[in-house]
């Protein structure tokens, strides 16, 4: 098996990373103090004790509650800088970062505050951390599509520096079809499109993301394996799936990492990529996810190269930017 040093040295591309999911417990407490916010936690250990999840919703409850500490553009900038520093250590060369604006606007934070706090730091990622980056705003599917449409309209009007849009939060009962109009508007403005689908939801949601939202990549997508016609469709078109091994284990989508279908997905020829999703909540960053795959499945240099290459090909990069990563 590959060594830790070899795993770290592998040039990595991260395509599924929620910036709010990089909010570490220590930073939560520091920002709470800085902003004079009272949290319902006695101390760091009390907070850490709550990181045990039974499903996606049980995680989302903690994830959204902890965001209360993110108030100013400086808070979002500090969060983003901390992620970039950690990603650089992990060997990340390019990151496409999700931001959930509605998780902040619904609690009174201005859209420009969260977007510029993150975007201003991402703009410096190459100069400060030696990695390129892009911002993808994700809409909360468990909130009304009309609200997403209003936020997207505002982002377009303010000429926000975004590469694309995505769709996340509680999946079951919130099918992609509800967001057709939002994605059509995004496409009309030249924005790239991705969506979470087939994490907890059925293969039908993956089909909808592909055919109705016309996404370029599917976030998670692991339940696609239940539908052979869908697998064939994804393989033929080499549509990338941004798979998140630690996330799937911690949200009980799979029982243990050893039960994860990633090797089976690779064997079927799916364009699998490895991602960290919400690393502060799920037990590790991108290097840790790769390391665990190497340890659990004995993946070798060839498989890791395939996973990395899949991510480089699926990234929203110009050919000039892509070439040195291939
Ligand atoms: C998420 Cl793992 C996951 N699934 C859906 N929505 C999310 N938002 C943040 N992490
Ligand atoms: Zn996600």
UniProtKB/TrEMBL annotation:
Comment on bound cofactor = Binds 1 zinc ion per subunit.
GO terms assigned for molecular function:
adenine deaminase activity; zinc ion binding
Site-annotated residues for Important for catalytic activity: 220
Which residue range or ranges hold the Adenosine deaminase domain?
11-326
Names of required cofactors? Zn(2+)
Q: Where does substrate bind?
A: 278
| Signal sequence annotation | none
Catalytic reaction equation(s): adenine + H2O + H(+) = hypoxanthine + NH4(+)
Q: Which UniProt keywords apply?
A: Hydrolase, Metal-binding, Nucleotide metabolism, Zinc
The active site is formed by 199
Could you give a single Gene Ontology term from the biological process aspect?
hypoxanthine salvage
Taxonomy, superkingdom: Bacteria
Query: What's its job?
Result: Catalyzes the hydrolytic deamination of adenine to hypoxanthine. Plays an important role in the purine salvage pathway and in nitrogen catabolism.
Describe the family membership recorded for this protein in Swiss-Prot or TrEMBL.
Belongs to the metallo-dependent hydrolases superfamily. Adenosine and AMP deaminases family. Adenine deaminase type 2 subfamily.
**Protein name, per record:** Adenine deaminase
Biological source species: Cryobacterium frigoriphilum
Taxonomy of origin reads:
Bacteria, Bacillati, Actinomycetota, Actinomycetes, Micrococcales
């Amino acid at each position: 098996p590959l060594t830790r040093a070899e795993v770290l040295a592998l040039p990595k591309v991260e395509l599924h990373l929620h910036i709010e999911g990089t909010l570490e417990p220590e930073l939560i407490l520091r920002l709470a103090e800085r902003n004079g916010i009272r949290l319902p936690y006695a101390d760091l250990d009390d907070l850490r004790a709550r990181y045990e999840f039974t499903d996606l919703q049980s995680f989302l409850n903690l994830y959204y509650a902890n965001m209360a500490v993110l108030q100013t553009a400086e808070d979002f900038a500090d969060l983003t800088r901390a992620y970039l520093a950690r990603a650089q250590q992990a060997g990340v060369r390019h990151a496409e970062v999700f931001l959930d604006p509605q998780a902040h606007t619904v609690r009174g934070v201005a859209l420009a505050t969260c977007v510029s706090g993150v975007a201003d730091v991402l703009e410096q990622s190459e100069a400060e951390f030696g990695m390129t980056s892009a911002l993808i705003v994700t809409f909360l599917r468990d909130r009304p599509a009309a609200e997403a449409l209003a936020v997207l309209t505002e982002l377009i009007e303010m000429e926000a520096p975004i590469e694309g849009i995505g769709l996340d939060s509680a999946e079951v009962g919130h099918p992609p079809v509800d967001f057709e109009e939002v994605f059509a508007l995004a496409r009309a403005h030249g924005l790239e499109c991705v969506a979470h689908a087939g994490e907890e939801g059925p293969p039908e949601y993956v089909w909808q993301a592909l055919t109705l939202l016309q996404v370029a990549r599917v976030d998670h997508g692991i339940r696609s394996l239940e539908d052979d016609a869908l697998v064939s469709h994804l393989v033929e078109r080499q549509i990338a799936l941004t798979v998140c091994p630690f996330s799937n284990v911690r949200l009980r989508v799979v029982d243990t990492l050893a039960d994860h279908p990633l090797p089976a997905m690779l064997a079927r020829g799916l364009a699998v990529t490895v991602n960290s999703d919400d690393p502060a909540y799920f037990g590790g960053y991108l290097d840790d996810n790769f390391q665990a795959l190497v340890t659990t499945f004995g993946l070798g240099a060839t498989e890791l190269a395939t996973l990395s290459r899949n991510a480089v090909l699926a990234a929203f990069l110009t050919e000039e930017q892509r070439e040195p990563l291939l």
